């Protein structure tokens, strides 16, 4: 009888683990990432359309929210001196790509980014007392209206990139998307704090690199 009880317990535990695995798989399947066609021409300068890859990424979350990303064909690289940077080879203000937000989104500061299409430029956090501890990593993408940032090859000083991006929020602060450690390309992972990170590939020195973009989540208050 004791042996049978042990066998039954093992079966119950195995079934629970199996069902739990199915639940996790189901949750992962609800976050969908797919390849899509070239960026739509409407509202984009010729330079922007030519600067991004022919195929993009569409991410769809379980609540129906979507975003579309097109990564740059070539990204400017430069060693940064920012301590702890996840992507130290990306040049400050480098054009990384374009994002289209059919429903808008909240940025990492909790600011509203209206529905529209935006350029994304890499910008590390300023190394000053005003920005200490605001994020676990110093790496960010700043979103600017495509109408105001039509020259992707142009590199800007930090205050210019911030001013361009501030047009997105209509405040004195730029629209910021935090970067995280990249996972498996074309997937979305959930961090312990509930943030969702999209991983996509980008060109890097003739090969393929990858970058993790926080698409849902805000800084700890």
Explain what you see:
By secondary structure, this protein is α+β, with helices and mostly antiparallel strands. The chain folds into 2 domains: 1-29; 31-216, no CATH class. Helix content is 21%, strand content 33%. The strands form 2 sheets. A 10-stranded antiparallel beta sheet has the order 1-2-3-4-7-8-9-12-11-10, with helices on one face. The longest helix is centred in the N-terminal third of the chain and has 28 residues, at 2-29. The N and C termini lie far apart (56 Å).
Q: Layout of SSEs?
A:
Elements: H1 2-29, E1 32-36, H2 46-51, E2 56-60, E3 66-71, E4 95-101, E5 105-106, E6 112-113, E7 116-124, E8 139-145, H3 158-169, E9 175-180, E10 187-190, E11 196-204, E12 207-216
Antiparallel strand pairs: 1-2, 2-3, 3-4, 4-7, 5-6, 7-8, 8-9, 9-12, 10-11, 11-12
Descriptive keywords:
221 residues; 12 strands; 33% strand; 10-stranded antiparallel sheet; globular; disordered N terminus; 21% helix; two-stranded antiparallel sheet; alpha+beta
Q: Into which percent range does the helicity of residues fall?
A: 10-25%
Broad structural category: alpha+beta
State the order of secondary-structure elements, H for helix, E for strand: HEHEEEEEEEHEEEE
Distance between the termini: 56 Å
Task: Please work out how many helical segments DSSP would assign.
Answer: 3
Largest sheet: 10 strands, antiparallel
Number of DSSP-assigned strands = 12
What is the molecular shape?
globular
**Mean pLDDT, nearest integer?**
84
User: In percent, how much strand structure appears in the residues?
Assistant: 25-35%
Please tell me how large the radius of gyration is. Answer: 20 Å
Tally of structural domains: 2
* Biggest sheet: strand arrangement: 1-2-3-4-7-8-9-12-11-10
Ranges with pLDDT <50 over ≥5 residues? 1-29
């Amino acid at each position: 009888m004791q042996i049978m009880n042990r066998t039954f317990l093992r079966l119950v535990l195995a079934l629970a683990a199996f069902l739990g695995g199915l639940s996790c798989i189901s949750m992962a399947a609800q976050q969908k990432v797919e390849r899509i066609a070239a960026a739509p021409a409407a509202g984009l300068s010729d330079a922007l359309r030519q600067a991004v890859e022919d195929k993009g990424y569409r991410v769809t979350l379980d609540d129906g929210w979507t975003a579309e990303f097109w990564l740059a064909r070539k990204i400017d690289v430069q060693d940064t001196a920012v301590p702890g940077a996840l992507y130290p080879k990306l040049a400050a203000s480098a054009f990384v790509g374009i994002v289209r937000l059919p429903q808008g989104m909240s940025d990492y500061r909790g600011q509203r980014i209206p529905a529209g299409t935006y350029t994304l430029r890499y910008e590390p956090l300023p190394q000053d007392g005003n920005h200490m501890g605001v994020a676990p990593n110093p790496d960010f993408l700043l979103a600017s209206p495509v109408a105001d940032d039509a020259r992707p090859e142009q590199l800007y000083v930090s205050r210019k990139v911030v001013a361009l991006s501030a047009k997105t929020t209509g405040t004195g602060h730029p629209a910021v998307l935090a970067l995280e450690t990249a996972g498996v390309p074309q997937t979305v992972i959930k961090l312990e704090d509930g943030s969702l990170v999209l991983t996509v590939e980008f060109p890097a020195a003739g090969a393929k690199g990858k970058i993790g973009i926080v698409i849902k989540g805000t800084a700890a208050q």
